[in-house]
Specification:
alpha/beta, Rossmann fold, N-(1-d-carboxylethyl)-l-norvaline Dehydrogenase, domain 2, 2 domains, 6-stranded parallel sheet, 9 strands, 53% helix, globular
């Protein structure tokens, strides 16, 4: 009999996780507030639930992948939320990027109902998620983490246990700090090549195999070469949410982050230019505009 797992939040990441779990032979019970997401679940062969509570009552292990703190609070403790579900011992693998205090409150509220929340953000884009190229930063109850290993392996290529609850988010903030900088650096390098009269495709093919490459250059370079950002694996608007969280995290530690602070302004500029729904690779267009480059796509 197939092992059953739940998922709440079937957006870019959640959809990829759901499909990979189904391909691995899991039964997936899912819920999302949007009809389109529930349609993706049904089309892939998943089982529809009526609420987060319903998911928790039909599964012992469930994943949440949510866009905001408000969504997290609603899913955990709102009407029809996980905390109100019958039974005890359910494990919630929380994969969203959110402030640690928000997750910690949810952990305490679920614990009061005999349920376990693990802080397990994932590192990688939606495109990486689709091919199971994510890394999980898992933190919290270690025994619960061990019980979830096969589920986590179904959505990722590596699962890193990093200790006490909240350390997963701390690792994710560091990872996204680097993503923010490396994504801008990739765009800057390609624009420098354009200004030098080099074909962007040639620049990408050569630099991607050089010491100057990065995962962001390799992943987002191709879309920067094409100048197409309308099939986002992570949107500018979503990334601004992450920038706010990371910025406050660093500020609370009084940690200087000069490169991150400068890089963040270009993402704000992209949203101000109407690119909020585009992939973060569109940062390249912001730099091209500054350089006076108009490319035929």
């Amino acid at each position: 009999m197939a092992k059953r797992v739940g998922i709440v939040g079937i957006g870019i990441m959640g959809t990829a996780m759901m499909r990979n779990l189904l391909r691995d032979g899991f039964e997936v019970v899912g819920y999302d507030i949007t009809e389109a997401a529930m349609g993706r679940l049904a089309e892939a062969g998943g089982i529809a639930a009526g609420s987060p509570r319903d998911v928790a009552e039909k599964t012992e292990i469930l994943i949440t992948s949510l866009p905001s703190g408000d969504a997290f609070e609603q899913v955990m403790t709102g009407q029809g939320g996980i905390a109100s579900s019958n039974g005890t011992g359910q494990i919630v693998i929380e994969c969203s990027t959110l402030p640690i205090d928000v997750k910690a409150l949810g952990q305490a509220q679920l614990a009061a109902q005999g349920k376990i929340l693990l802080d397990c953000p994932v590192s990688g884009t939606g495109a990486q998620a689709a091919v199971r190229d994510l890394v999980v930063f898992a933190s919290g109850d270690e025994a619960a983490f061990e019980r979830c290993r096969d589920v986590l392996a179904g959505i990722s290529r590596a699962q890193k246990y990093v200790g006490t609850f909240g350390n997963g988010s701390r690792m994710k903030f560091i990872a996204n700090h680097l993503v923010t900088i490396h994504n801008l650096a990739a765009a800057e390098a390609l624009v420098l090549g354009e200004m030098a009269g080099l074909d962007p495709a040639l620049v990408f093919n050569v630099i991607a195999d050089s010491a100057g490459s990065s995962r962001m250059f390799q992943i987002r370079g191709p879309m920067m070469v094409k100048g197409r950002y309308d099939q986002p694996t992570a949107t500018m608007t979503t990334h601004l949410k992450d920038l706010d969280i990371i910025g406050k995290f660093a500020a609370d530690l009084h940690c200087p982050t000069p490169l991150f602070t400068v890089a963040a302004q270009f993402y704000h500029a992209a949203v101000a230019q109407g690119r909020g729904g585009e992939d973060t690779g569109a940062i390249c267009t912001v730099l091209e505009n500054l350089a006076g480059i108009e490319r035929k796509r």
